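Structure first, sequence second, as always.
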């Protein structure tokens, strides 16, 4: 019998469990650990609340947990409640699927001012992550600045600009909806160091800005290269650039017809934040591309900013006893192998790149590496050994059956039109599960 511990119950973790089930069938036992009492990681607390179709992949992961050879072990923090060395003594293989839950620091003068947030914080706040429940961003100012040109920046801009009616069908948590209802934001500036051809925004997410009820996207036509240059782009990027061009054209015809403006400020690199205890302005350096890299032109200007959200990337949280690559912000690994018996997948392996589906081949690849290193398993105790240790330490484990009770309680508490009202307190989750 092969015993595998997977640390993290998001997409990378569940795809790895699914791959192990397919490879070894009844000859494997898989424990999927999570520090929260609820599963699905990024699906629950990272995917935008108005993207319910993407969250539907959790139904696939539920089938994995309901199998006889895999189980969810919630409310257990690896590195605190149990160490990697202890897990290695119990399981033949450990797979780290912890994602990249920490914001990459915004290393600029003034970044310690008030009302400046990383995207992991703000997204966690409106998605009901218990760690960020008390965040309370002040949305009563007129100007917001979002730093970054990826899909997360689009998510934040969209959430900040939607009407309450546009959240129908979403699972945005009540405390965030209450705060957004009081928002007075009129301009949302999205800053990017490069130009339209270098954005990391996908067409679907970019296209959603065109149908917002009270917000209109604006792009400066002067930021674009000649249109014939678009022919050299990859098809997805070309489509995104086409949408940006349509925003630039439409902006001239419809300027000022909606109360909220989403301004794309390209070739713009933030260099400092200014304020009086809380942020009031972002100082920006104009850039130009030299051999594909942004370089300052020497021109500086300031943007009003009552709220700043940094969407510049994420880092994996270190775990004691696991080699860590500080520069890349992920576990040090060779194509998923940290050492025989210890592996990583998803963002913990490659950094915060790719979509949810990108994690699936990672899971199948790591299972092949486990098979090459470990073979068919050993005489380690696996699940039975962990259960004994958990009982000795008084760990309050949350099972998948407990999670289903939590889910039922969230669905029962949902406001009209919403699929659920998430618990945002760990103790409340555990009580509902019991």
């Amino acid at each position: 019998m092969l015993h595998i511990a997977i640390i993290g119950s998001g997409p990378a973790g569940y795809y790895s469990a699914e791959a192990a089930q397919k490879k070894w069938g009844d000859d494997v036992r898989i424990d999927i650990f999570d520090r929260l009492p609820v599963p699905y990681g990024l699906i629950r607390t990272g995917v935008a609340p108005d993207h319910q179709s993407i969250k539907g992949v959790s139904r696939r992961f539920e089938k994995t947990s309901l199998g006889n050879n895999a189980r969810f072990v919630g409310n257990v923090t690896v590195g605190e409640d149990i160490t990697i060395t202890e897990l290695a003594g119990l399981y033949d293989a450990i797979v780290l699927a912890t994602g990249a839950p920490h914001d990459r620091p915004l290393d600029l003068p003034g970044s310690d001012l008030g009302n400046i947030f990383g995207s992991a914080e703000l997204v966690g706040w409106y998605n009901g992550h218990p760690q960020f429940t008390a965040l309370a961003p002040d949305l009563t100012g007129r100007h917001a600045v979002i730093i970054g040109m990826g899909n997360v920046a689009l998510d934040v801009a969209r959430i900040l600009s939607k009407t309450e009616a546009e959240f129908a069908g979403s699972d945005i948590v009540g405390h965030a909806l209450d705060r957004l209802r009081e928002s007075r934001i009129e301009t949302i500036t999205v800053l990017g160091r490069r130009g339209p051809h270098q954005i990391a925004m996908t067409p679907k997410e970019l296209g959603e800005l065109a149908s917002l009820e009270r917000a209109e996207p604006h792009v400066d036509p002067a930021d674009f290269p000649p249109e014939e240059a678009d022919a050299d782009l990859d098809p997805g990027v070309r489509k995104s650039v086409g949408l940006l061009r349509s925003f630039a054209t439409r902006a001239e015809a419809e300027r000022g017809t909606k109360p909220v403006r989403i301004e794309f400020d390209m070739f713009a690199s933030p260099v400092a934040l200014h304020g009086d205890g809380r942020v009031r302005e972002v100082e920006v350096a104009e850039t130009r591309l030299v051999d594909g890299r942004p370089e300052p032109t020497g021109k500086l200007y300031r943007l009003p900013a009552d709220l700043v959200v940094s969407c510049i990337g994420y880092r994996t949280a270190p775990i004691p006893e696991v080699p860590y690559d500080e520069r890349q912000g992920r576990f040090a690994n060779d194509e998923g192998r940290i050492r025989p018996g210890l592996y990583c997948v998803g963002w913990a392996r490659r950094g915060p790149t790719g979509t949810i589906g990108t994690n699936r081949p990672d899971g199948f690849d790591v299972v092949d590496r486990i098979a090459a290193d470990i073979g068919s398993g050993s005489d380690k105790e696996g699940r039975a050994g962990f259960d004994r240790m958990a009982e000795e330490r008084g760990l309050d484990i949350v099972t998948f059956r407990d999670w289903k009770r939590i889910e039922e309680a969230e669905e029962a508490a949902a406001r009209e039109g919403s699929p659920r009202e998430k618990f945002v307190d760990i103790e409340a989750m555990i009580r509902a599960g019991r």
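Margin note: The two ends are 32 Å apart (CA to CA).
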